[in-house]
Amino acid sequence: MCGIFAYLNYLVEKDRGYIIDTLTNGLKRLEYRGYDSSGLAIDGDNNDILIYRQVGKVKALEQLIKEDTKLDVSKTFLSHTGMAHTRWATHGQPSQRNSHPQRSDPNNEFLVVHNGIITNFKEIKTVLEKKGYQFESDTDTECIAKLTKYIYDSQKSNKQLTFTNLVKAVVKELEGAFAVIVKSTHFPNEMVAARRGSPLLIGVKTEKKLKVDFVDVEFGNGEAIPDSESKMSASDVPKMHRSQSRAFLSEDGMPQPIEFFLASDPSAVIEHTKRVLYLEDDDIAHICEGELHIHRLRREDGMSSVRLIQTLELELAEIMKGQYDHFMQKEIFEQPESVVNTMRGRVNFDTHKVTLGGLKAYLATIRRCRRIVFCACGTSYHSAIATRAIFEELTEIPVSVELASDFLDRRTPIFRDDVCVFISQSGETADTILALRYCLERGALCVGITNTVGSTISRETHCGVHINAGPEVGVASTKAYTSQYISLIMMAIQLSEDRISMTERRNAIIDELHELPRHIKEVLKLDAQLQSLAKDVLFKEKSLLIMGRGYQHATCLEGALKIKEISYMHSEGILAGELKHGPLALIDENMPVIIIMTKDSYYPKVQSALQQVTARKGQPIIICNEGDNNLVTKYRSIAVPQTVDCLQGLLTIIPLQLLSYHLAVFHGVDVDFPRNLAKSVTVE
C-alpha cells in the first residue's frame, strides 16, 4: 500500500537540491505499490521543518517544490534528515491535508509518515480532543503525531526523555499494523522508526567497509507505559541504556561519514546501496550522529540479539522499463527468462530430479501430514488453485485452498499434523501474514512461497521456496504468477519422489518443464494478434466471460482478474461445469465469451459447453492448442503450443495477460498503477 522513504546524511555534505531529488526518486521507486498522493519533509534554515504535500503523482509534488521560490536548494548540510511518503487512502479521502507527513501542531514539532492502519485511532483521537488538541486531517496517522507531542509535553521535566524513549511510549499505545518514521524539531538530525506488521528496512552506505555485519539489539528494562495506567497517562517512559553501535565506527573508534536510507521496499534503496538491515516486528530504530541503534522493550525467548546487515542481489537495471512502454509489458515478456530462473539449480533434467533446498529438512514431515492447506490472496490464490490437482495426484495428500481473509473470518480449524503453505509475491500481504500467525499458534508446519528475501512471510515460516522471479513493479502480477505456479509444481514433484508409481508422470512433467521457456517464446509471438483482438473485437465491450475446466479453471479466474484490474472492464472467470447452473442465462450474441479448450481429459466436457454457447448465438473466442484444426477453422481462435496438462495453464494465461494489457492501453488507463489498487497489500 503506502510507501515510506527517508534519507539521512551524517558528515557527508549534500545540498538541499540533492536531498530533495533523493527523496522524490525514492518515492518513484515505490510508485508500483499504489498511491493517490505524496509528500516530504526536509530541514529548514532555522531549526524548523518544511513540509510539501500534493495529491496525484510524485511529479506533481516535484512541481510544487519547484514553485516555492523562497526555497534555497543550494544550501548545504553536513548532516540532515529528510522523510517522504506515498499514500494510498485508508482513512480520509485523497487530499493535500490527508497526505503525509502528518504534523503534531502548526510549528511542526513532530512529523510522522506511516504505512498501515491504527485500529484504535478513534479512541486516541477522542482522548486528545478532550485535552484540547485540534485535528487538521481525517487520517489515523495524525493521531500518532499528536500523541507524540502530548507525551513529550507531559515529560519535559524528565531528563531521561530521549527520542527513542518517547517513540517507545507512543508505540505502546498503538494497536494495529504499522511502520512509522518520526522526525522532530526537538531532536534535530535524529530519526526514529518503528515497525509492527508492515515492512521497513534500512540501507547503509559508507566509504569504508563496516567493522561488523550486524547491529546489536538493545533491550529495555520495562514497559513504555505500565498496563495499570490508563491510556496516554503521563507515566515514566522506559529507561534505556545507550551502547556504541559497533558496525558504524571507524578504526579510531569515532563515527565515520555515513548515509542511511529507510524504505518500505529494497527497490527504493538499491541505487544507493546494497547493504540493508530488515527491522523485525516491534523493533525501534534510532539514528543519531551516524549511529544506528535497534531497541526493544524486553527480551523474548528465542529472539535474536542482533540484526544482520545483508547484501541485496537486486540490480537497478532490473527494475527499469528498458525498451518497453510499461513495466507490465516488460514483465510479461520476461517470462521465458523468469521461469528459467525459478527452475535454475533446482531441476536436473538429466536425472529427472527436483531439489528445493529450502524444504529439504522438512520433507519427511510434509509427506506424513494429514492435509496441505494453501492460503493466499488474489493472483497467489489462483496459483494454488492451478496446482491443487497435481498436488493431490502426485502426493495423494488432501489439499484445500483458502482465501486468507475468509480463512481468518471462519477461524478455520488447524491441527498440528497439518501443513500450511502461504503464498505471497511480496511476502508482506497482511491477511496472509495474519493467517500464518494463526496457524503457527496452532502448531502447524508453515511453508512460505515468496518472491522477496527477508520478507515477513519468508522469516516467520518454518521453511519455504523463493520463486526467484526477479522484481515485479507492475501492480498486476504476471511473471510472479507463472513462477509461483512452477514453484508449486516443483514442490509437488519433490514431495512425491518416494512414490515409484508416479515416476512416469513426474518424468513427463519434468521433460515439459525443460521445453517451457521455448513454448512461452512462441506464445509471446501472438502479441500482435491479441492486440488486434483487443482493438477490433473487445475494446468497446462492457463485460467478458472466460470459461474453462480442470487445470484451466484457474486460468479463467486469473485471466478475468487481470482484465478487470487493468482495463476496468468487468470480467468473470467461470468453471465450464457450472455453465448450466446460472451463467448460461448471460449468453447471447452480444456477450463476448472466451473459452479455453486444450487437449486434455476435459476436452469433451468443454466441447459440450462450447456447443451450449453457440446454440445461444454466442460468438466464442477459443484459446486452443496448435494443430486443433477443428477449432481453428471454425472459430476466432488463439492457438498455443501443447504441453502436459498440469503445465498447460502456464501457456494459456499469457494470451490473457497480453489481452488485458492491450485493453488497458486502448482505454488510456494507467497500466502499471491501476486505480484503487496496490502492489503490496500490507493492511487488512
UniProtKB/TrEMBL annotation:
BP terms from Gene Ontology: fructose 6-phosphate metabolic process; protein N-linked glycosylation; UDP-N-acetylglucosamine biosynthetic process
Reactions accelerated catalytically: D-fructose 6-phosphate + L-glutamine = D-glucosamine 6-phosphate + L-glutamate
Domain (SIS) ranges: 362-501, 534-674
InterPro entries cross-referenced by the UniProt entry: GATase_2_dom (IPR017932), GFAT (IPR005855), GFAT_N (IPR047084), GlmS/AgaS_SIS (IPR035466), GlmS/FrlB_SIS (IPR035490), Ntn_hydrolases_N (IPR029055), SIS_dom (IPR001347), SIS_dom_sf (IPR046348)
Pathway(s) annotated for this protein in UniProt: Nucleotide-sugar biosynthesis; UDP-N-acetyl-alpha-D-glucosamine biosynthesis; alpha-D-glucosamine 6-phosphate from D-fructose 6-phosphate: step 1/1
Enzyme Commission number(s): 2.6.1.16
Gene3D superfamilies on file: Glucose-6-phosphate isomerase like protein, domain 1 (3.40.50.10490), Glutamine Phosphoribosylpyrophosphate, subunit 1, domain 1 (3.60.20.10)
Key word tRNA processing present: no
SUPFAM superfamilies (alphabetical): N-terminal nucleophile aminohydrolases (Ntn hydrolases) (SSF56235), SIS domain (SSF53697)
Keywords: Aminotransferase, Glutamine amidotransferase, Repeat, Transferase
Top-level enzyme category: transferase
Biological role: Involved in amino sugar synthesis (formation of chitin, supplies the amino sugars of asparagine-linked oligosaccharides of glycoproteins).
NCBIfam families: glmS (TIGR01135), PRK00331.1 (NF001484)
Protein's recorded name: glutamine--fructose-6-phosphate transaminase (isomerizing)
Organism per entry: Piromyces finnis
Phylogenetic lineage: Eukaryota, Fungi, Fungi incertae sedis, Chytridiomycota, Chytridiomycota incertae sedis
